[in-house]
Amino acid sequence: MANFNTHLNGAFAVSGTLSLVVYKAGLVNDPGFLMCVALGTVGGLLPDLDSDHSTPIKLGFNIAALVFAFGLVMHWRNELSLIALMALWLAGYGFMRYVVFRLFTRMTVHRGVIHSVPYMAILGLGLTCISYYGWHNTLTASWLYGLFLFGGAMVHLTLDEMYSVNLSGMTLKRSAGTAMKFYQHKDKGWYLLLYTLLALLIYAAPPFTAFWEQLRDPAPWAQLKVGVLPAFIEDILY
Ligand SMILES: [Zn+2]
């Protein structure tokens, strides 16, 4: 299994590059660009949330709770009084910190359930739904946020899979093939729950075809092609 630093660097490199691509293509705005980088990087750390030596993860949890509470306050900043906003902040933070994360650590007892493709797909799709229906972000931004979170997690699972291959002797360690996991028989109850949740989320998700059409639209990518090289080189070429 790859270590924390490898995951952090790997996920940051991949999500940073892809975020730049979608940003340069004009598919996300400035804050959206930062969101994509952050989500991809966080996604790269998520599957190991259940590892024992994860102080950075606990810190990450705390930050996530703060960001969530801040998001709530920002969303209702015009409708509510100052006292109500402060109460909302505390309630949001407490809810994430003591309800969601407690539940989460309960689940982590079943190692492998979190370290799996369907679990990460649920998180990605869930984020897309929250972003679109809850925060009223655009369809494109919402799908990209979910995809970046999921993509970061897939970078993580791929890295673990690669590290389970002993490169010097090209022999497979015993952990080979266990990282990129879709199902495990000993946790069949959990996987049944995961796939049921996933099916519900797919049903509830914002329209994918409209997002896909936008991605297939050649205009943003043409814009990207213009901005790939530094301006002085383009002056020479065109
Ligand atoms: Zn891992």
UniProtKB/TrEMBL annotation:
Keywords from the UniProt entry: Hydrolase, Membrane, Transmembrane, Transmembrane helix
Transmembrane regions: 31-47, 59-76, 82-104, 116-135, 141-159, 190-212
Short name of one Pfam family: YdjM
Keyword Zinc (UniProt): no
Listed GO MF terms: hydrolase activity
Record has Hydrolase as a keyword: yes
InterPro entries: YdjM-like
Designated name of the protein: Hydrolase
Organism of origin: Psychrobacter frigidicola
